[in-house]
């Protein structure tokens, strides 16, 4: 959807997007996906890294409280426990900034490479060089 909107916004005569617009389109789409999937990624990470029957002291600012860490038996169990004890932001959106940055960067790069490959294929088809050229390895013998 971002690609369609970007093409309408840029309105180039050749119907293509410029490199900065391609990059921004990929970055926005990737960043949004990274943000929206952060809560489940946090829960997945907690499930993968938890230790059986943990317990210990948890520091809450100036005081230290002894609290037994919950052993999650599934995503829903972990979501409920995290929301109750840590809240929405600190419980489910831990690391959202670096995650959005990283997914934006990855998606921008991937989108630009993908779009450039499509342009290359389109040009090769236009000049009769795709999928096989007569002088290439797959030419007739």
UniProtKB/TrEMBL annotation:
- Subcellular compartments: Membrane
Q: Name the source organism.
A: Linnemannia exigua
A Gene Ontology cellular component where this protein is annotated is: membrane
Pfam families listed in its UniProt record = Mito_carr
Give me the Solcar repeat coordinates as residue ranges.
Answer: 17-120
Family (UniProt): Belongs to the mitochondrial carrier (TC 2.A.29) family.
Q: Does the keyword Repeat apply?
A: yes
Q: Keywords in alphabetical order, please.
A: Membrane, Repeat, Transmembrane, Transmembrane helix, Transport
Name by which UniProt lists this protein: Mitochondrial carrier protein
| UniProt-listed Gene3D superfamilies | Mitochondrial carrier domain
Q: Give the way it sits in the membrane.
A: Multi-pass membrane protein
Q: Which domain of life is it from?
A: Eukaryota
Query: What PROSITE patterns does UniProt report for this protein, alphabetically?
Result: SOLCAR
């Amino acid at each position: 959807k971002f690609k369609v909107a970007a093409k309408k916004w840029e309105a180039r005569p050749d119907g293509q997007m410029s490199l900065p617009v391609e990059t921004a389109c990929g970055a926005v789409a990737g960043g949004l996906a990274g943000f929206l999937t952060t809560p489940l990624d946090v829960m997945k990470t907690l499930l993968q890294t938890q230790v059986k029957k943990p317990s210990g002291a948890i520091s809450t600012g100036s005081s230290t409280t002894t609290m037994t860490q919950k052993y999650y038996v599934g995503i829903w169990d972990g979501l409920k426990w995290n929301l109750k004890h840590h809240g929405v932001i600190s419980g489910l959106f831990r690391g959202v900034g670096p995650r959005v940055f990283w997914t934006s960067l990855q998606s921008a790069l991937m989108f630009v490479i993908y779009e450039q490959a499509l342009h290359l294929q389109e040009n090769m088809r236009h000049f009769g060089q795709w999928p096989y050229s007569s002088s290439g390895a797959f030419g007739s013998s």
